[in-house]
Amino acid sequence: MKTTVPDALKSDLPPNKWGKLLAATPVVMTVLATMLAGLASSEMTRAQYDRSLAAQQQSKAGDQWNLFQAKKLRGTLQRTTLDLLDSATAVRPLDVNALTRTLAQTPAATALSSAAGQQALTELQTGELPSSLVTAPTVDANVQAALAALIAARPDADVLAMLGMVSEPTLAEALQQAEDAARSFDAATAPVNKAIELVEKLLTSEKSVRLASDAAMSALGRDFTAARLRATAVRYDAEARLNQTIANLRELQVRKSNTSAERHHHRSQRFFFGMLAAQMGVIIATFAMAAKQRNLLWSLAAGAGVIAATFAVYVYFYL
C-alpha cells in the first residue's frame, strides 16, 4: 500500500529534498519504531535463553560439586580406617614378593602379571599414582587466570574482568579437556582397581588360606588391607581434584552466561527507549498534519527519528 501526503500539506513543506524527507517522516518513523521493537524483543529473548542456559550449567556444576564432596569424603573414610587399623595393630609395608608367592597358584597370578596387575602392585607398595595419571590438563592462560581468581574467591568484578578475555569456544574447549582427563583417569584406573579387588577376594578365600600358615596369612592380609586403603584414598583424592576442576569451569560458564544475559537485557532496554523515540516522532508527525506550524513539528519528528536511529546504531554496535 502506497503512503502519500495530501496536496494541502505539501504546500507547507519546503520544495526541496528536505521537504520530501519531512513528508516521508511518518512512514520512516513507523518502520523504524517497528524495527526497534523487534530488536528489543529479540534481545530480551536472548537474555532469557542465556538465563536458562546458566541455570542448566549451574545444575551441572552442582553435580560435579556433589561428586567432588563424595570422593573427598570417601578418601577421608579410607584414611580414617587406616589410622584405626594402624592404632590397633602393627602395620608393615606390603611385601609384594610374599603376596606374589602366596597367589602364585590362584587366578590372580595371571592378573598380577599383566600391565594393570604390575601397576596395582606398584600403587599398593608406594601408595602413589603414576605421574602420567595425575597431570592436569593444559588450558588457555586466560582461563587459568579466571580459574585462579574464582578459586581465590576474588570479587565478582575481578573474575568477570578476566572472564571477559575468554571466548565461549575457548572455555568450552577447556571444559572438554577437563572432562576428557576425568574419563581417561577412570579408564586407566579401572583395570588396576579390578586387579586389586581380585587380590583382596582371593586373600580372603579358603583356597588362599590353605596356601600359607594362619599367622603369615593374617599378617599379609593386614598389610594388604592397609596398602589398599592408602592407595584407594590417593585415587579418590585424584578423582576429587578432577571433579573440582570441572565444577570450577562450569561455574565460569555460569558467570559468562549470566553476563551475556545481563548484556542482552541491557540492550533490550536501550532498543525499547529508541522505539519510544521513534514512536514519539510518529506522534509529532501526525499532529503536524493537523497543525498550522507543520514545518516545525515535522522537523521535530525528523529530529526524533534521527536520534532514535543513531541511538539504535550505537546500542547495536557498542553495547
Account of the 3D structure:
With 319 residues, the protein is mostly helical. The protein has a domain at 60-260. It contains 12 helices and no strands. The two termini are 36 Å apart. The model has no long low-confidence stretch (mean pLDDT 79).
List the helices and strands and how they pair.
Elements: H1 7-10, H2 17-23, H3 25-88, H4 96-102, H5 108-113, H6 115-126, H7 141-151, H8 156-163, H9 168-203, H10 206-209, H11 214-288, H12 294-318
Helix pairs in contact: 3-11, 3-12, 6-9, 6-11, 7-8, 9-11, 11-12
Sheet bearing the most strands, described?
Answer: none
Count of DSSP E strands? 0
Radius of gyration, taken over Cα atoms and rounded to an integer in Å: 36 Å
| Count, helices | 12
State the low-pLDDT regions, or none: none
Order of helices and strands: HHHHHHHHHHHH
Portion in beta strands: under 5%
Portion in helices: over 70%
Structural class: mainly alpha
Mean pLDDT across residues: 79
End-to-end separation in angstroms reads 36 Å
Q: Which of globular, elongated, flat, extended, rod-shaped describes the shape?
A: rod-shaped
Describe the structure concisely.
By secondary structure, this protein is mostly helical. It has helices spanning 7-10, 17-23, 25-88, 96-102, 108-113, 115-126, 141-151, 156-163, 168-203, 206-209, 214-288, 294-318. The chain has a domain at 60-260.
What descriptive keywords fit this protein?
single chain, 319 residues, mainly alpha, 12 helices, 81% helix
